[in-house]
# Entry
Amino acid sequence: MLITATPANGAAVTLAAQGKQLFNVALLMLLFGLGAGTPLVVFGSLSHTMMMRLRGRLMLAGQRGKFILGGVLLLVGLATVSGGDKVFEAWLLDRLPDWLVNLTTRY
# Structure
């Protein structure tokens, strides 16, 4: 269970652990949950409505994205098989600043 670290929630958890003022603790947790959950439910409903409105364009973008990604993966595969990836890596290492090469190859 994920508990958000806020003063109100921290106080409620502390009181609940001590077994004191359980009605107040339950009420505080309920109000906290409603306050935290209500914006999420509203945002989720609005985003669902928006996604349904944009569904056609999103589907088209997804189909095009699959085609483009497939082409990129095919090119990467061909470069790997032919050794072109090593040529590209050497070319890139010659042009990158030393601090970036050191940062990316340190570990």
Observations:
- The radius of gyration is 27 Å.
- The CA atoms of residues 86 and 99 lie 21 Å apart.
- The helical segments are 7-18, 22-53, 55-82, 84-95, 98-105.
- DSSP finds five helices and no strands in the chain.
